[in-house]
């Protein structure tokens, strides 16, 4: 094994939800792919590995469908039919209803573990073109004129035309390529847990803006919701240390009683929140995707959707270049991907950052202005529909997968 050399067109470092989705999409189009990930797949698919739930926008659902993944997810996906956005206990709010723009849901909520299980099954089914190498780690790599050569810790070597960094917000590949990153801390922590409740949620997602940060109640299958509770970083450890009864009391104070009796199901998780944006998304035979390129505040549930749009754009760029007989790792090919993705990512990062800073306070004059703004948008149907289409990932120059077309 130590002397084995694996040949692939694309080498993806990072087999998480974004990296492995890209691998599955490319393999489905006949591109040979190697995906290297440090984590054992069996650990990544265990319920205790990640308690988060992801919002899958309508455009992302189409991309997952085009990659052959949605069929395996549909039974465990809860449609988002309405979204209610409110500022603490203000009577003014925005109410989005999917029926205002068509029959399709605004999105779906999917537990991360279900997405990982589906990805792993699809990777195994596409083993002819996709080589998932995990657990494994890249020890070193080098860029040649025509290829990238990587050496794994166990001695195996991989040669490819293109190297893709899908190794998260602390990306080693990005750092070693000398790509600078703009960062900003929020002084906030996201507390995540699953809540069972007495009354049905009816597919309604709630985003309540509290002084410490957004408090999101997101519909899951059954009488369950995912709670994403943004709290001040200095208070979050004490909240996480509370026993079940005390934690439930603090949660219920913020949650309200509109869904009846509440009970936390399973463990709680907490994650520090911050913003990071890479100054560029490409380097010599290198492309960044997902959190390696951008990590934003979860205020609008758009983090994974940004990564999936990266996947759709990069996959289309690679497949188109390959069909024309071009080098998929050439600079002009990668530049097309960068131009395509930079504006969308930067725009959404600025919007989510601004919304979090605007609403995460209790300054009375500012609160009055933003509450009037919520009410005004709610009474302007054309503007509401535009915002809904943005949230669904259906605005801008869309890749074929996001439009529901094959690669």
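^ Assign residues to that structure.
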């Amino acid at each position: 094994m130590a002397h084995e050399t694996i040949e692939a067109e694309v080498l993806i470092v990072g087999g998480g939800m974004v990296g492995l989705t890209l691998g599955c999409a490319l393999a489905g189009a006949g591109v040979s792919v190697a995906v290297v990930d440090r984590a054992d797949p069996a650990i990544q698919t265990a319920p205790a590995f990640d308690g988060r739930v992801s919002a899958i926008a309508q455009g992302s659902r189409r991309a997952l469908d085009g990659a052959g993944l949605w069929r395996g997810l549909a039974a465990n996906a809860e449609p988002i039919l309405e979204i209610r956005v409110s500022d603490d206990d203000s009577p003014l709010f925005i109410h989005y209803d999917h029926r205002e723009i068509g029959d399709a849901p605004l999105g779906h909520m999917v537990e991360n573990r279900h997405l990982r299980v589906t990805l792993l099954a699809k990777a195994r089914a596409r083993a002819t073109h996709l080589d998932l190498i995990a657990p494994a780690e890249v020890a070193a790599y080098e860029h040649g004129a025509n290829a990238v050569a990587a050496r794994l810790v166990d001695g195996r070597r991989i040669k490819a035309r293109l190297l893709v960094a899908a190794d998260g917000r602390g990306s080693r590949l990005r750092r070693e390529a000398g790509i600078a990153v703009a960062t900003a801390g929020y002084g906030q922590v996201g507390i995540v847990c699953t809540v069972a409740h007495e009354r049905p949620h009816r597919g309604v997602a709630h985003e309540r803006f509290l002084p410490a940060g957004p408090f999101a109640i997101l519909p899951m299958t059954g009488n369950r919701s995912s709670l994403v509770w943004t709290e001040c970083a200095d208070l979050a450890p004490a909240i996480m240390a509370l026993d079940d009864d005390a934690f439930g009391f603090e949660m219920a104070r913020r949650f309200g009683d509109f869904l009846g009796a509440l009970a936390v199901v399973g463990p709680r998780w907490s994650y520090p929140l911050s913003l990071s944006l890479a100054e560029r998304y490409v380097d010599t035979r290198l492309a960044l995707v997902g959190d390696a390129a951008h990590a934003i505040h979860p205020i609008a549930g758009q983090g994974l959707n940004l990564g999936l749009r990266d996947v759709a754009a990069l996959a289309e760029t690679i497949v188109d270049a390959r069909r024309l007989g071009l080098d998929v790792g050439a600079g002009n090919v990668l530049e097309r991907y960068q131009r395509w993705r930079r504006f969308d990512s930067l725009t959404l990062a600025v919007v989510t950052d601004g919304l979090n800073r605007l609403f995460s306070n209790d300054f009375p004059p500012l609160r009055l202005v933003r509450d009037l703004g919520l009410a005004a948008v709610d009474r302007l149907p054309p503007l509401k529909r535009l915002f809904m289409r943005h949230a669904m990932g259906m605005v801008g120059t869309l890749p074929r997968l996001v439009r529901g077309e094959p690669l």
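Residues 331-359 form the longest helix (29 residues).
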